[in-house]
Amino acid sequence: MSSAATSADAVIAATRHWLERAVIGLNLCPFAKSVYVKEQVRYVVSTATEAPDVLDELERELRLLDEADPAEIDTTLLILPDAVADFLDYNDLLYFADRLLGSLGLDGTLQIASFHPQYQFADTGPDDIENYTNRAPYPILHLLREDSIARAAAAFPDAADIYERNQATMRRLGHAGWRRWMAGEDEDSAEDKAAGKNPPAKD
């Protein structure tokens, strides 16, 4: 196996671990488990190092997802291990990614969600635990189908409260609790974590 293939496999393995432990394990996205267990997630490890090349690959993936059977590919993770390591550069990329989505006539059909190792919400400090709801091991452009989001939201009456609930979950965990959870050292149930039944971790 080539070193490039091995590296891509390692990137996907780290991404799947993050999905299993954080996104699904902490129920940060209640819609994620279904497509994950049905293996309807497409993982694409980009070799691009510059934003223009990322956008070229993004265009291909947007077109592919739009044309694919949702039963085969419901969502795509475009993973960028060698590009936009700086969050400000990533934010600049998101602007052009959204413009690309519109230029392809896919507004209202697909959308792009954002994850980054340095993710920072507005009005938060760089080390605030709340940012970890959107922190992934690599910069990721998550391509989603609007129809799938609408169906999933209809099945979860409290979908509008997801953001606030996730922030509360992170505050209960704290940085030390997050590290233990991601390392697999804390095996209390995700339901208990999300519901706040465990004492908050001390940093």
Classify the secondary structure makeup into a structural class. Answer: alpha+beta
Order of helices and strands: HHEHEHEEHHH
**Which regions are unreliable across 5 or more consecutive residues at pLDDT < 50?**
198-203
Structure summary, number of beta strands = 4
Give the strand line-up of the largest sheet.
1-2-4-3
Share of helix, binned: 40-55%
Number of individual domains: 1
The main pleated sheet reads as:
4 strands, mixed
Mean pLDDT: 90
How many helices does DSSP assign? Answer: 7
**Over the alpha carbons, how many angstroms does the gyration radius reach?**
17 Å
- Rough outline: globular
**Could you tell me how far the N terminus lies from the C terminus, measured between alpha carbons in angstroms?**
42 Å
Strand portion: 5-15%
